[in-house]
Amino acid sequence: MVDQAPAASASFAAALAQLHAADLRDDLVTRELPAPTGLAPEAFALAGDIRPEPGALDSVYGTGRFVLLHDREEPDAWGGAWRIVCYAQAPLEVDIGVDPMVAEVAWAWLLDALDENGAAYHSPSGTVTKTVSQGFGSLAAEGSGSQLELRASWTPDGPFDAHVRAWAEVVCMLAGLPPGSEQAPVLNPRGRARA
């Protein structure tokens, strides 16, 4: 006899239905990923990439991950039965990457996106990491580069589609596409605009 994974609880199935029904920006191409194991009894994972090249798994403009966790035991650290964990990263122009306020701005974008999408939440936590690199030797032609990475989690209170829409907005904003800029040109990592 082959063991089968337990069926999703009714509340988790309802949450997944909301996530699948969410209307996301055309700039973000999403796909379901295998959910992480060991974090919660029930989990769902989604990847999102800004205008990826055909056949590519990641985008040079920006990428992100969205994970919904459900544990009916309500872990103390979560303050509820649900937790969202997300990741977003995008290349930056070097002069933006060295700006001392860029990390605070990225965190504010996340909170603003949650609020603007009506995604009620509590217990947010996370980090924003900015890196600046310089190529040498055989990588000298790469020149300088910078990248911004946001890792965050929060406990959702409200419809799950609002939370995945907020995450999608943040991934797009990190790539230089603010709300209302669908199909606008994106600066590639070397500063040339591409549609």
UniProtKB/TrEMBL annotation:
<dbReference type="Pfam" id="PF11452">
    <property type="entry name" value="DUF3000"/>
</dbReference>
<protein>
    <submittedName>
        <fullName>DUF3000 domain-containing protein</fullName>
    </submittedName>
</protein>
<dbReference type="InterPro" id="IPR021555">
    <property type="entry name" value="DUF3000"/>
</dbReference>
